[in-house]
Design a protein that fits this description.
This protein is about 30% helix and about 30% strand. By secondary structure, the chain is of the alpha/beta class. It has one domain. Strands 2-1-3-6-5-4 form a 6-stranded mixed sheet. β4 and β5 form a beta hairpin.
């Protein structure tokens, strides 16, 4: 699963959740936007916030809500729970389970 912040309609940055059935990976991908634009769009969409230029913190409930409505795999809820459990075991999930730390990457070509 990828959370993208890319230039959308009218050249305005927008956030979207893509590849929702691929729960073996999760990151924030940035298109041709500045870190400031990406931070504003991510927060405005309610999906999370930047921690620094290499790391973002995503809201688990908002991410699930955005992704689940697009999911096509029948076992998606179980695989989501596995992904969150894996994140917890690696220390990427907050103590309260509300946020998930992810790496920020370039979405070149997005």
């Amino acid at each position: 699963m990828i959370v993208e912040v890319v230039t959308g309609a009218d050249e305005r940055p927008e956030a979207r959740v893509v590849d929702v059935d691929d729960l073996g990976r999760l990151h924030l991908a940035l298109g041709q936007v500045t870190d400031e634009e990406a931070a504003e769009v991510l927060e405005g969409a309610g999906l999370g916030r930047f921690q620094d230029s290499e790391t973002a913190v995503l809201d688990v409930a908002a991410l699930r809500a955005a992704a689940e409505q697009q999911a096509t795999a029948s076992d998606w809820p179980a695989r989501w729970d596995e992904m969150v459990g894996q994140a917890r075991s690696k220390g990427w999930l907050s103590e309260d389970g509300a946020t998930l730390q992810v790496h920020v990457e370039s979405a070149a070509g997005a």
